[in-house]
């Protein structure tokens, strides 16, 4: 006996869309970068490489660190800290949302499973099975979103570490250059104190 259920599974899709939109809004750091830094490229340009720091007057023996160069260095450090905090906050918000949603999802899945088992006819059983499949698709999308948030947090940390290492390398090179034979005159044994 084939029989349609009274309520179609459209409400399941509406719940799935609502949950996904809420999760996307909680974890969407790309939109944050676009709003905060004028686009993804603007955000990425705030992380520097060794060549940038080598050419900065703040890491040069010949030039003095001017206010503009110092401001750029501080902005880069602030961007790094802000990005790490935002990525971690987004990840935690997403985890919190998932944790709060798990009991609701589990209860609803249990109801759907019971209805599938007690379905009166093939059509009703198929409709409940489709609702179960929709919930499984929803779960996969949520896992994917959380993996993206986790990857974003790891990537943000990596960008900050690379930027910090580039700055440290340029500073080390500038300090070492001060002691190099090219800078100190020949004909005398120099100590580190003589260079400063």
Describe this structure in words.
- Helices cover 77% and strands 0% of the residues.
- It is an all-alpha fold and 196 residues long.
- It has one domain.
- α1 (10-27) runs parallel beside α6 and α5 (67-117) runs antiparallel to α6 (122-178).
- The longest helix has 57 residues, at 122-178.
- It is rod-shaped and about 100 Å long.
- The termini are far apart.
Short description:
With 196 residues, the chain is mainly alpha-helical.
What portion of residues belong to β-strands?
under 5%
- The 3D shape can be described as rod-shaped
Distance between the termini: 94 Å
Topology as H/E string? HHHHHHH
List the defining traits of the structure above.
196 residues, 7 helices
Topology:
Blueprint: H1 10-27, H2 29-37, H3 40-44, H4 50-55, H5 67-117, H6 122-178, H7 192-195
């Amino acid at each position: 006996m084939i029989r349609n259920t009274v309520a179609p599974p459209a409400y399941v899709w509406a719940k799935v869309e609502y949950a996904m939109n809420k999760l996307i809004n909680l974890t969407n750091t790309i939109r944050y970068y676009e709003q905060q830094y004028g686009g993804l490229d603007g955000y990425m340009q705030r992380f520097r490489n060794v060549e940038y720091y080598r050419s900065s007057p703040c890491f040069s023996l010949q030039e003095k660190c001017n206010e503009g160069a110092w401001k750029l260095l501080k902005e880069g450090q602030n961007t790094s800290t802000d990005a790490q905090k935002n990525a971690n906050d987004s990840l935690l918000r997403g985890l919190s949302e998932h944790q709060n949603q798990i009991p609701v999802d589990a209860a609803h899945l249990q109801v759907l499973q019971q209805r599938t088992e007690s379905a009166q006819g093939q059509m009703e059983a198929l409709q409940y099975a489709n609702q179960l499949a929709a919930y499984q698709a929803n779960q996969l999308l949520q896992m994917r979103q959380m993996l993206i948030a986790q990857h974003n947090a790891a990537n943000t940390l990596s960008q900050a570490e690379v930027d910090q290492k580039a700055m440290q390398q340029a500073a080390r090179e500038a300090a070492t250059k001060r002691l190099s034979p090219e800078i100190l005159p020949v004909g005398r044994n120099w100590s580190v104190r003589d260079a400063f």
